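# nightly structure sweep
# worker-07 picked up a monomer target from the shared queue
# config: single-sequence mode, recycle default, output format = structure tokens
# input follows
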Amino acid sequence: MNPSRITIPADKSWARFTGSARWENNGTGVRLIDFLKNGALFPGSVRQEDPNADGVVGQTIASNIIPVVDGDYYELACLQTSGGNLNIENVADLTTFSVQFFT
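# output follows
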């Protein structure tokens, strides 16, 4: 089990992913979050970019309901271009990654 991934179980075929990230205060560069499937971008993936970071930035994304396959894994990717280290805040309910399955 990898705590940074959501792996699709055998009995699921449709899912919607949601994710959010709250960045520490820094006014330089871009903040970007998106979903990855098996470590790569995929058709229908969702991306949110904040090109004008102006201090504390919170971002939230949600996918459409998409077909999923047993064993595939999904991740929430968080990227930034401040020029230095920039943490994601570990604040309850502000940095999340979840899945909802549909039949």
